[in-house]
Design brief:
Length: 200
């Protein structure tokens, strides 16, 4: 939802400030896997097919539930264009992601949450496990929003700045930094961007 919220604010020059319901996706979308993860591409498809509701109408519960959304909830629709960064699944890479971020704003990515990542407190995350040099079908189980990038002055390490959905008490006030340019935990494998219309 963070990508839709950020891009609608950018597109409207901050005249809109929607806070969209994640629980609607978790509980009501046939395109997602609930709390077992989701794919930003399919969440974008759901937004086009069914629209999105605001958080105030269907608050986040942090668990899988049956869809109990009120029929009076207003759905925000739009002819959004959604696509894999790079044009198709597997074409994504770090330079294209940086370009998308600079030109159009935050975008969604999926990645594999490992047990050590759950305990992240700060710094630039690098997974200590073994790396698979090539896997055309990346394992992912969590969707987040890339909001920035940088280079650590002390180490020279490149990183992404990513907004997580686990609350401000987790990580770096709800955000984390992860090494950039190595497809760490498949984070650079299938980034998705959406074009939000001016009236969303």
């Amino acid at each position: 939802m963070g990508m839709f919220e950020a891009r609608s604010r950018i597109q409207s020059n901050r005249s809109t400030s929607y806070v969209l319901s994640t629980q609607d996706i978790v509980s009501c979308s046939e395109y997602s896997q609930g709390c077992e993860g989701g794919f930003p591409y399919l969440i974008s498809k759901y937004a086009i097919d069914f629209g999105l509701v605001e958080e105030s109408c269907y608050p986040y519960q942090g668990k899988d539930t049956q869809c109990t959304e009120s029929p009076t909830c207003k759905r925000h629709h739009g002819n959004n264009d959604y696509h894999y960064i790079g044009g198709f699944y597997g074409a994504c890479n770090e330079p294209l992601m940086r370009l998308e971020l600079v030109k159009n704003g935050p975008f969604s990515v999926s990645f594999e949450v490992t047990s050590d990542f759950m305990h992240y407190k700060g710094g630039i995350y690098v997974n200590p496990g073994l790396k698979d040099k090539f896997n055309p079908f990346e394992i992912t189980n969590h969707a987040v929003v890339v909001v920035g990038y940088g280079i650590d002055e002390a180490s020279g390490m490149k990183y992404w700045i990513v907004k997580n959905s686990w609350g401000a008490q987790w990580g770096e006030e709800g955000y984390f930094r992860i090494i950039r340019g190595t497809n760490e935990l498949a984070i650079e494998s299938m980034a998705v961007a959406v074009t939000v219309p001016k009236i969303f």
